[in-house]
Amino acid sequence: MIEVFVSEKLVVRVPCAVIEHEGKILAGQRSAALSFPLQWEFPGGKLEKGETDEEGLIREIREELDVEIEIIHKLPVTVKDQGWREIVLVPFVCRLRSHVITLTEHEQVLWLNPEELPSIDWTEGDLNIIQNYYDYLSIKL
Ligand SMILES: Nc1nc2c([nH]c(=O)n2[C@H]2C[C@H](O)[C@@H](COP(=O)(O)OP(=O)(O)OP(=O)(O)O)O2)c(=O)[nH]1
User: Fold this and answer.
1) Contact 58, 69 (CB under 8 A)
2) Count of alpha carbons within 13 Å of 126, Cβ hemisphere only?
3) Alpha carbon nearest to ligand 1 atom 7, residue
4) What is the pTM of this model?
5) What is the CATH number of domain 11-140?
6) Where is the Nudix hydrolase domain (predicted)?
7) Is the Cβ atom of 123 under 6 angstroms away from ligand 1?
8) Domain range annotation of the chain
9) Which atom of ligand 1 approaches the CA of 44 most closely?
């Protein structure tokens, strides 16, 4: 008899925010000390126990940027396979409800026009989020 051991892969759910303000989108540069150092991401992070995607995202954005957001629209989920784990990115289009950003984790943030988004070095998988955001914009306009 052949036994097949299928090891269970860790699945990490990460809500993240495509934050719009005055026609621009916020990109955050990850710290040099973290995984995916100095690459760009949509701010957000892993859920805590019992949180919904929306609750976790609002908490993460408060922690990382010290601002309040309004969640506008959920974009399609993007799954990123790292071999030893799967990162399930759950992006939401958001708006700022408060406007003074204080960075607690990111190296820097940039406000980019939608067409400028692909020009920086995003973590793998985020280009899918950008494409899905473009699709959302084209339907909305
Ligand atoms: N917030 C966010 N995380 C992203 C994006 N793309 C992407 O691969 N990630 C990854 C980076 C992290 O591995 C994970 C988010 O977890 P986290 O915010 O707690 O970051 P972390 O460095 O502490 O996590 P880790 O990799 O050390 O486990 O998702 C993105 O656009 N936004």
Assistant:
1) yes
2) 23
3) 123
4) 0.93
5) 3.90.79.10
6) 9-134
7) yes
8) 11-140
9) 1
Distance from Cα 36 to the centre of ligand 1, integer Å? 8
Pairing relationship of beta strands 10-21 and 85-96 according to DSSP bridges: parallel
User: How are the residues of the chain apportioned to helix, strand and coil, as percentages rounded to the nearest 5?
Assistant: 25, 35, 40
Burial (0-12, 13-18, 19+ Cβ within 10 Å), 141: exposed
Confidence band of 7 (pLDDT split at 50, 70, 90): low
Note the pLDDT tens digit of each residue in 73-91: 999 999 999 999 999 999 9
Among 26, 36, 58, name the best residue to mutate to test ligand 1's pocket (greatest count of ligand atoms within 8 A of Cβ). Answer: 36
pLDDT tier for residue 1 given thresholds of 50, 70 and 90: very low
123 alpha carbon, distance to own chain's centre: 10
Residue 14 Cα to ligand 1 middle (Å) = 7
Sign for the pseudo-dihedral over CA of 74, 54, 128, 130: positive
